[in-house]
Request: fold
Amino acid sequence: MAATGSLPLTQYPTYSKPPTSQKPHKKPLFSLPKQTFPLIFSFPFHRSLNYPTKPPRFLPLCDSLQDNIVQNIENPKKLLLPNAHSRQILSPESAPRIFIQDPPWISALFWKGLYKMTNQTVKIEHKEIEKRKYNLLRRRQVKEETEAWEKMVEEYRELEREMCEKKLAPNLPYVKGLFLGWFEPLREAIAKEQKVQKGKSKKLRAAYAPHIELLPADKLAVIVMHKMMGLVMGAEEDGYVQVVQAAVHIGVAIEQEVRIHSFLEKTKNYQRKQIVDEVQGASKEKEILRKRVNSLIRRRRLTEVQKLVKNEEIKPWGRDAQAKLGSRLLELLTETAYVQPPIDQSGDSPLDVRPAFRHKFKTISRGLGQKIKKRYGVIECDPLIRSGLDKSAKHMMIPYVPMLVPPKKWKGYDKGGYLFLPSYVMRTHGSRKQQEALKGVNVKNMRKVFEALDTLGSTKWRVNNKVLAVVESIWASGGNIAGLVDRNDIPIPEKPYSEDSTEIQEWKWSVRKANKVNRERHSQRCDTELKLSVTTLPLPCVSMCALLNGFYFDASPVYACLFICFPSGFVSFCPTHSKKLVLKQVARKMENEEGFYYPHNLDFRGRAYPMHPHLNHLSSDLCRGVLEFAEGRPLGRSGLHWLKIHLANLYAGGVEKLSHDGRLAFVDNHLDEIFDSAENPINGNRWWLTAEDPFQCLAACMNLSEALKSTSPHSMISYLPIHQ
Reply:
């Protein structure tokens, strides 16, 4: 803040009083004594000072000490000063300037205040951007969790309409043709059942009657159809599922959908009333429906949804009601779902049309000649459906996928995790005793557990696109590399011409073995096709059978097993190897996301696992290889050292048992192979394929190569996770 003087040394004007029209704080300079020199500041300077002949360059700043105001200080030719009731124009040549440097502490205060103000502005803008981004992601998450079944019903209606108009039925994939053929008869049967139960008196109505009327018939048909197919495909026994298990699963799914449906209807009615009052009309139905999802992300609406989902407005149905409703819907499905062989039949022979599902009883005995131990009912899937699945593709979708926003913090047994889908802090497998015990525990005693689960759930992950591209390339070239399954079946041995019983028996065993291997390969190939599919899906898609094969009961999906067609058909799944069946499609969907989160809960031993069971950091080498942290950290001084040790551990083969110096020496001796693996993983020397964990080793090679080639390896940002 510099002050300048601009009066000639030979003249000291006396200023008149300001006119009455001027504001009080804009006073002109008052009369000055003869031994002083007037400046804009009120500081007096002795006239014996030596002034520079050429004024230095200065920046005009306001004087913060006095209220004297000088206008147009940047152009002194226009500077008007009063003198005896007149104003004179002073040129810069007639009056040399004086530049007075501010003390350092004044400049420090100025720059500190400017920096603080700028920093606060940047922080505010950053918070606003992050808030808008979070609201957008939350809106997507809410929409995906709440509208899955509605999208599926709409898709069936649209497909049915196109079939009628364009006669596309012969071109439909086998499984989707089955589902479409079952949809309309099942919907009509459910609608008829709803009408019958509604017409009966309360005494004569069935126990499931109050619940079957809570959802439209088309939505019930979609839930039953897809849920049942997913259960049959994921059953431990080929083509069988227990009636009680299927009924309860269907009942649970319908109960949760009723809660979501109830809330959406409530929100829609509220918005309809609000908008109609504003526009004074009833022609805004489309706008109401369009804004329905946006309203869900508002804090008040979310609070209302959480209360609704957490049984505060709708009482729990209970296992008995769920099983009774599911049993009746299963019965309607077995009565209306039929299957016909896709082969051409002669006109003389009758049509081979048979039920798609049959109700049977199975028995379990202790051994040959002993009494029956247990007898239970099962639903059997027709072999034609299974054979049709083997020649086409199937695609299932569940809502328990990685979240786009951080999960809700755990606050109770069923309070936390996903925004709307049912989430439980522990996997109880349907055990009432465990559920009651957990609900009876004081929340304060579970605080440490909740904090640990929240910490795990708040970790942000993303897809390593470089590794995923390598996986896709390997699969496109035929697989059979780095643990990926071979895309070709092994040949079936031909029947020998000999009639020797020993040779015939050996041939039968070899055929069985070949068929078993081919079924396993088919399961894995279907999985890989699903994971690598380039079709854009409304949700990350995973295999229903992988979920149901050994998955926990409490987290069974509310919107289980939707299926969507993509150009190559459908992907079928077998129970074998089902834990590996889902990774790449989830990865393909998530590869363009900035990051995602995994809600965690506990098993009965107290171990924490992600609720999404497929593409997660606790799964196989393939899963771990395509995942990395979304928020990186600099390697630091010792980071490069430990990165080399980590790479040696992933290579294994005895290298992980060496000392630290030995592992460092191993990596240093193979730097050429590491660089080649990172730059040309497919067409290079493929050194990374010799590692015990090839995809994790490849990710580490890429990370180490980037660090060593950077100008400052210690400051290089690394996103590589170190798995146990």
User: Anything to note?
Assistant: The chain has five domains: 1-102, 103-138, 147-330, 408-614, 632-718. The mean pLDDT is 71.
